[in-house]
Amino acid sequence: MLKYQKTGLYFSQILLSLILANSVQAFSSESHSQTTEKFRQIQQPIPVKIAVTAAGLGLIGLEIWWFMFSKPKAKQATQIQDTQELEILVDGGYEPNRITVNSGQPVRLKFYRKDPSHCLDKVLFPDFNISKDLPLDKTTTVEFTPDKPGEYTFSCGMNMVRGTLEVRG
Ligand SMILES: [Cu+2]
Q1: Distance 157 CA to ligand 1 centre (A)
Q2: Are the C-beta atoms of residues 29 and 43 closer than 8 Å to each other?
Q3: Higher-confidence residue: 24 or 77?
Q4: CA–CA separation, 9 vs 30, rounded Å?
């Protein structure tokens, strides 16, 4: 799994435990109010309840933002003499899965495939007529020169796992 997906899962867990903590608290304060005055004094002050609820709502907001608006960060290829080079790890997906290169300059992408899944044994750059086999535990070099700025997709053989190549003018 990719890093940001893991982080998303992590947020879900925090969120779930907060909601649980909140409902347990609501339940216990309800039963307190039905019992004697002594117990009522133990109840958490309202500002604490508001703070906990606000934190929970904040996390829900963060969660929604995370899945709807967060984009994985693009990684810029490194200039080596007149070629722009970048290593891409193939392991459950492409890492990075968003890469940035400059238009009109040769690009060398080094795909290192660590994932034994048959799904990832090929990488395609349809816009550049490139299809390359990626042998396991080896680095495979893909070279081309993009001459038009824009966003291009690269993918596995079945077009299930994808990455984005951003060509800047
Ligand atoms: Cu695939």
Answers
A1: 5
A2: yes
A3: 77
A4: 32
Ligand 1 centroid from CA 42, angstroms: 58
Average pLDDT, the chain: 83
Ligand 1 centroid, distance to 88 Cα (angstroms) = 16
**7-10, long-range: CB < 8 A, 24+ apart:** 7/66, 8/63, 8/66, 8/67
Question: What gap in Å lies between CA 151 and CA 99, rounded to an integer?
Answer: 10
Residue 3 has pLDDT above 80, yes or no: no
For residue 165, give the nearest of 75, 71, 58 by alpha carbon. Answer: 75
Cα(159) to ligand 1 centroid in Å equals 6
Residue 167 exposed, middle or buried by CB count within 10 Å (0-12, 13-18, 19+): buried
Nearest-10 Cα torsion for 103, 146, 161, 63: 10
Residue 37: both structure tokens together: 């005055």
Peptide bond into 96 cis (omega under 30): yes
Per the DSSP assignment, residues forming a β-bridge with 113 are: 90
What is the 3-state composition of the chain as percent helix, strand, coil, each rounded to the nearest 5? 40, 30, 30
Q: Directed axis angle between helix 3-34 and helix 46-68, to 10°?
A: 150
Please write the tens of the pLDDT for every residue from 53-62: 888 888 877 8
